[in-house]
Amino acid sequence: MSPGRKGAGAQGRREETGDGGRETHLPPFGHPDPPANPLRALPVEFVGSFPDPLVRLDPALPEVALIGRSNVGKSSLLNALMGRPGLARVSGTPGKTTLLNAFRLPSLYLIDLPGYGFARAGKAARAGYRQLITRYLGERSTLAGVVWLLDVRHPPSRDDFEIQELLIASGRPVLAVLTKADKLTRSARAIRTRELAADLGLHDDQVQLTSSSSGQGIAELGQSILAIGERP
Ligand code: GDP
Q1: Is 191 a pocket residue for ligand 1 (Cβ < 6 Å)?
Q2: Residue 171, C-beta contacts closer than 8 angstroms, at least 6 positions apart
Q3: Measuring from atom 5 of ligand 1, which residue has the nearest CA?
Q4: What pTM value is reported for the model?
Q5: pLDDT, tens digit, for every residue of 154-209?
Q6: Strand 143-151 and strand 174-179: pairing?
Q7: Confidence check: pLDDT of 15 > 70
Q8: Does ligand 1 come within 6 angstroms of the Cβ of 212?
Q9: 72 lines ligand 1 (CB under 6 A)
């Protein structure tokens, strides 16, 4: 750069900053834009709550189901994903509901399956739940994939392993979403993610670490959900 141009540039900067002094900050190199959550930009509508796992939704669209233990953070994740706090109820009474909640996006439904593993459930309630999920996973022709939520802090419970068996038997594509990442340090997160993946026989690209509080991993999850819903 010629001395003349350099002088003009420095002059220009002085005018911008207005401090009359020398520029003290190095120009930033620039970061790639963080990934955007595509679901936030889309209209979403609560369709209803249904007891029948084979309920027909109109229009018929591909659907992505979310399943996880009560209190795993499913409602919080749905609200963070859709960018509408309060759309999915953040549960005060864990596991009380046995209904499927359906949310309509333009090209797919998100199906919020009831949470499992609530401590006070009796034998009959457990059997009923198992039957509901077995039928839903096994027989639902519009089901494109399942998002399985696991709390990153805890080893899989007996109930998680039972659901794993049902998921394997159904042959459905599964994305394991680890919730509440903000509750661990960065190094603990990495260790727990590896341990959970090993415990459950998951591949690296099948695991997504998330936090509804910090927003970590939410955009990536939104992209994965749209992608699987649009798969032919
Ligand atoms: P659900 O029963 O699976 O629907 O779980 P909720 O969404 O109701 O969450 C259960 C509890 O965990 C609530 O107290 C939430 O505020 C809390 N929670 C959910 N997600 C997160 C998260 O990402 N980070 C933290 N720190 N807390 C969370």
Answers
A1: no
A2: none
A3: 73
A4: 0.85
A5: 999 999 999 999 999 999 999 999 999 999 999 999 999 999 999 999 998 999 99
A6: parallel
A7: no
A8: yes
A9: yes
